[in-house]
């Protein structure tokens, strides 16, 4: 990992709340942008690519573009999918366990992952989706009996203004908000998060190793992700969990996993959960095999050696490392099978019933843990 750096903060331009102007623009004028001095271009500050965009053009994500001298968020008011998920699917294991979460996405993404399992959504460069206002999304979340929302399936910070407007309404309605994020953000996007965000899972790929992210994601390095995590930590308002997709042959280096685990320990603390996820062939990486379970187990061992207390394997239903183990006595504290919680061995204060150790779990087991928490609500073809 190269040196972690901090981006320079920039002032926001005056924004007019205008919707759907004449011409081909749609959505709403964005807020995270600035004119590029000496040019007729605009710099988008919603992600660490900092795209410089000319009139009539869109950034790499495909959903933020320039129309009549302003940057527009074309997907404001457009949702491509809405699905009820267990919170454990995010994966989030230490925040409001058993919650039922309404998951939404727009089209577009700021990464070009060759293995993306949501490529039909994230790599779609058309502005498509069901038309909804923020209050409509909140209403649907409540109607489904969910405790909150997840902004997922593509990178949520590319539609940060829309997510924030939904999230602030959701918070007023007593709902929680989760980002499933690649972390490739800016100080400007992180500054918006405490207004509404309760929890984020930041999903590394190949442990953030530079050769991997350059070849299979098309970003120069993972440095902005680490800075996003530091900035998010410093808000002191957002629960953080880490995931790491382990891709066999090209993204399974144990030294990289050790370096990431040590960074998490040093900067986020030993109680930060880390999930090592099993890769499966998808999109443009169909020739690769599933990640061997033994490889995932070795990654977990490395993370534990570096001092992390809560280390998980994901996408391997029935594996013992789906469970939460008490750091005090080693007993199973929360038993899981896939996304389901099958055993809860904590007292009312989330202390281990066997030894009294205080586990780093936010919230008690939710009433929805035994409900059907996996079904589609909205889908736009």
Descriptive keywords:
alpha/beta, 9-stranded mixed sheet, 3-stranded antiparallel sheet, 8 helices, 20 strands, 23% strand
Blueprint of the fold:
Blueprint: E1 28-29, E2 33-35, E3 42-44, E4 52-53, E5 64-67, E6 70-73, E7 78-79, E8 81-86, E9 100-105, H1 119-122, E10 130-131, H2 134-143, E11 148-151, H3 160-172, E12 176-181, H4 187-192, E13 199-205, H5 210-216, H6 223-235, E14 239-246, H7 254-267, E15 274-278, H8 293-305, E16 311-314, E17 324-325, E18 332-337, E19 340-344, E20 375-379
Helix pairs in contact: 2-3, 7-8
Summarize the structure in words.
The protein is α/β, with parallel strands linked by helices. The protein is built from 8 helices and 20 strands. The protein has a 9-stranded mixed beta sheet with strand order 16-15-14-13-12-11-9-8-20. Strand 14 (239-246), helix 7 and strand 15 form a beta-alpha-beta unit. The two termini are 40 Å apart.
Summary, kept brief:
With 381 residues, the protein is α/β, with parallel strands linked by helices. It contains eight helices and 20 strands. The strands form five sheets. It has a nine-stranded mixed beta sheet with strand order 16-15-14-13-12-11-9-8-20.
Tally the helices: what do you get? 8
> Total number of β-strand segments?
20
Contiguous runs where pLDDT drops below 50 for at least 5 residues = 1-19
Report the C-alpha radius of gyration, rounded. 20 Å
Binned, the helix content reads 10-25%
Strand line-up across the major sheet: 16-15-14-13-12-11-9-8-20
Cα(first) to Cα(last) distance is 40 Å
> Which sheet architecture does the biggest sheet show?
9 strands, mixed
What average pLDDT do the residues reach?
Answer: 93
What percent strand? 15-25%
Principal-axes shape call: globular
Q: Structural class given helices, strands, pairing?
A: alpha/beta
N-to-C series of helices and strands: EEEEEEEEEHEHEHEHEHHEHEHEEEEE
């Amino acid at each position: 990992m190269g040196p972690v750096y901090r981006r320079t903060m920039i002032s926001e331009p005056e924004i007019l709340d205008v919707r759907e102007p004449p011409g081909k623009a749609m959505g709403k004028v964005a807020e995270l942008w600035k004119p590029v001095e000496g040019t007729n271009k605009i710099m988008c500050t919603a992600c660490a690519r900092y795209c410089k965009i000319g009139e009539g053009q869109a950034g790499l994500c495909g959903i933020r573009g320039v129309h009549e001298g302003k940057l527009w968020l074309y997907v404001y008011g457009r949702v491509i999918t809405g699905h009820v998920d267990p919170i454990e699917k995010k994966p989030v294991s230490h925040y409001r366990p058993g919650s039922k979460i309404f998951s939404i996405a727009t089209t577009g993404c700021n990464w070009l992952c060759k293995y993306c399992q949501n490529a039909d959504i994230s790599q779609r460069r058309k502005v498509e989706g069901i038309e909804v206002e923020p209050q409509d999304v909140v209403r649907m979340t409540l109607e489904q009996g969910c405790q909150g929302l997840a902004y997922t399936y593509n990178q949520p910070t590319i539609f940060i203004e829309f997510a924030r407007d939904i999230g602030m309404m959701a918070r007023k309605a007593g709902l929680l908000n989760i980002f499933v994020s690649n972390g490739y953000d800016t100080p400007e996007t992180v500054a918006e998060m405490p207004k509404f965000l309760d929890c984020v899972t930041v999903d590394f790929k190949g442990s953030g190793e530079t050769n991997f992210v350059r070849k299979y994601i098309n970003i120069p390095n993972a440095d902005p992700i680490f800075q996003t995590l530091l900035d998010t930590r410093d808000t002191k308002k957002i629960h953080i969990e880490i995931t790491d997709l382990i891709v066999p042959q090209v993204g399974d280096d144990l030294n990289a996993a050790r370096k990431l685990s040590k960074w998490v320990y040093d900067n986020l603390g030993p109680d930060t959960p880390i999930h090592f996820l099993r890769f499966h062939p998808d999109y443009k990486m169909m020739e690769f095999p599933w990640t061997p379970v033994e490889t995932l187990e070795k990654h977990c061992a490395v993370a534990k050696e570096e001092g992390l207390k809560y280390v998980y394997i994901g996408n391997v239903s029935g594996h013992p490392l789906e469970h939460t183990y008490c750091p005090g006595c080693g007993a199973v504290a929360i038993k899981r099978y896939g996304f389901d919680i099958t055993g809860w061995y904590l007292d009312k204060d989330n202390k281990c019933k066997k030894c009294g150790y205080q586990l780093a779990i936010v919230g008690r087991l939710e009433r929805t843990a035994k409900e059907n928490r996996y079904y589609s609500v909205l889908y736009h073809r």
